[in-house]
Amino acid sequence: MIKFDIVTIFPEVVSTYTGSSILKRAQEKGLVEIEVHNLRDWALDKHRVVDDTPYGGGPGMIIKVEPVFNCLKDLKKDNSLVILTSPKGERLVQSKLKELSEKQNAHYIILCGHYEGFDQRIHDYLVDYEFSIGDYVLSGGELPALVLVDGVIRLIPGVLGNEDSLILETFTEGVVDYPQYTKPQQFNNWKVPDVLLSGDHQKIDKWREERLFKV
Fold first, then answer.
1. Which CATH architecture group holds 2-153?
2. What is 168-214's CATH topology?
3. Residues with Cβ < 8 Å from 16, sequence gap 6 or more?
4. For 163-200, what is each residue's pLDDT tens digit?
């Protein structure tokens, strides 16, 4: 079983998503465990401060090293991989999600960034893997963390109701899925392609293969 410990200063944002839909069902089936933690629980003062101004000046606030160190000291095990959401990290791709999903008894601790980032000593000494989901700026690392968790969990055998949906799924084997249609056959004079209504599976497979987009 894979376990995720997600560390954030906005746990309610993360918990809402991890307690819904596919992720909720995966936990109920005992295929994965997810715990969401508030980094402020490891703050050193009564005001639960986890950030401070940067040395040398500059805008914004930086997440302090002490609460992160204390958090990891409590959460880490021998098999833990500490993951950081960071614009400086490796671009997250489907092959990486697959790799993470295939590790036996894996334990992933995900640190969600905020403000102007983390004290560099967290990058240098406390983290095993850093990732980004794109070249753009977000308010925090909660969305990237959820992207990784969702992407990994749906690849775990038994999570999806229909395992066949993974075989020709988007980005699997470097392709984006073919066009899909459902009822009604015609809407506003927009018609479903005749070949999909033909019942000829050889022709249907050929039609779909011709429309796979290579990435």
1. 3-Layer(aba) Sandwich (3.40)
2. Trp Operon Repressor; Chain A (1.10.1270)
3. none
4. 655 555 555 556 778 999 999 999 999 999 999 999 99
